Amino acid sequence: MTTYKIMLLGEIGVGKSSLVRRLVHDEFDFDYKPTLGVDIYRYEVPPAAPDDSHITLLIWDTDGNFSDQIFRHVYMRQANAALIISDVTRPQTLEAMASLSLGFRDAFPGRHHALIINKLDLIQGKDTPQLPSNLADNPPTIINTSAKTGQNVQTAFHEAARTIRRREE
């Protein structure tokens, strides 16, 4: 069995904890409880094919108070990947996501990271906002999710696990 450490990064209130709770416990809680420091979750990724080995994710749910200082923090040691999350209803979180994406790319070249635009259930029928221009040249994977409905939540984590594995082969 292979274990990978994935960091959840993003501003306060973008849904990092809701996404990981949806993944691990298949539940959504309407009561907002901010993360203090970091919470760590364990998740077993089901094999994609019968001959695949099992993958365990250690998901570090950070509190969002770090901004780009997170890249110098002990939490980032041995991180295999990051999912950088924004709230589709708060444009300033898209800017923060872009900044974190560029910071992660600079601090950890070659490591997987994906951009997660969360809370799609709140803009039903509307277009998702444009990404900040500083991501236009070489954008990472972008996945639109809803922790409330579960839309694309497993996809985001499973894709991260499989991408890490492919890069290690």
Ranges where pLDDT stays below 50 over 5 or more residues in a row are none
Largest sheet properties:
6 strands, mixed
**CATH architectural name:** 3-Layer(aba) Sandwich
Write the CATH homologous superfamily: P-loop containing nucleotide triphosphate hydrolases
- At the first level of CATH, the class is Alpha Beta
Residues in β-strands, percent: 25-35%
- Total number of helical segments? 3
Q: Taking Cα atoms only, what radius of gyration do you get, to the nearest Å?
A: 15 Å
> Level of helix content?
25-40%
Q: Which oligomeric form is depicted?
A: single chain
Number of strands: 6
* pLDDT averaged over residues: 86
CATH topology: Rossmann fold
Q: Would you write up a description of this structure?
A:
There is one protein chain. This protein has a single domain (2-168), classed as P-loop containing nucleotide triphosphate hydrolases (Rossmann fold, 3-Layer(aba) Sandwich), CATH 3.40.50.300. It is globular. Helices cover 25% and strands 25% of the residues. The chain has helices at 16-25, 91-107, 153-168, and strands at residues 2-10, 38-45, 55-62, 81-87, 112-118, 141-144. The chain has a 6-stranded mixed sheet with strand order 2-3-1-4-5-6, with helices on both faces. It is built from 3 helices and 6 strands. The protein is α/β, with parallel strands linked by helices and 169 residues long.
List the helices and strands and how they pair.
Blueprint: E1 2-10, H1 16-25, E2 38-45, E3 55-62, E4 81-87, H2 91-107, E5 112-118, E6 141-144, H3 153-168
